[in-house]
Each structure stands twice: as C-alpha cells, then as structure tokens.
Design a protein that fits this description.
Length: about 120
C-alpha cells in the first residue's frame, strides 16, 4: 500500500511538472486544435468544466483563466470543439448559472469573442 501511495505522489508531481504555467504559455497559434491542446495542457489559476448533457445542445464547456481579466472558453458538441479567447470571468460565471447554456451562449458569447490564429 505504501508503494502505491508513493507511486501516486510521484505521478502527481510529474504531471504537474509537465504542465506549462499559464504565464509562459504561447498566445498565438496556427490551428484551433493546437491552441486547445496547449490550453488543456497548461496549469491555470482557474480551470473549470461543466457538463451540459440533457440541458442543451452542448455536451460540455470549459473555462481557463490566468491573467485576472479574461480567459479561454471551449465548448464541445457532437465531437467538435469550439474555442473563444478573451472571455471575461463574469461571462463564464453567468454561463454556469444560466438556465440554458445554449441561450446564454448565443446572447453573451457568440460573435463577441474569437480566437485569432496566426
């Protein structure tokens, strides 16, 4: 049992060490997939996820926040992921509290924020 605990501790440390700190993460990307991979493998001050199954057409949404102002919003539906940059924390909080994720997304996020590629 002691070996398992030590092994789990080592794995946790290695996983944390392999993540990039959000202050050193690249901010320009050539593809959405590359941006999403970089974001998901970075350690952020806030990294939250909500599952939207049975509530709306979205499957899942995530928010990654580091700079004290804005963050990345990612949602998935039918196996595709969509990425938005510059989404304020209060918009994410409103999204999480919304009765309908889809309606909130259309009113407060869609067309207002974009992830710009190189």
């Amino acid at each position: 049992m002691k070996k398992i605990i030590v092994l789990l501790s080592v794995c946790s440390v290695l996983a944390a060490c392999s993540q990039t700190d959000c202050s050193t993460m690249r901010t320009s990307f050539t593809s959405y997939e590359g941006a999403i991979d970089a974001i998901e493998s970075t350690s952020f001050e806030i990294a939250e996820n909500v599952t939207a199954r049975f509530r709306d057409w979205m499957d899942e949404a995530s928010y990654y926040f580091c700079d004290g102002s804005t963050g990345y919003f990612i949602y998935s539906t039918e196996g595709r992921e969509y990425l938005y940059d510059g989404v304020p924390l209060n918009v994410w909080q409103g999204f999480k509290d919304a009765d309908s994720f889809g309606s909130y997304y259309v009113r407060k996020i869609k067309g207002r924020y974009k992830m710009r590629l190189e």
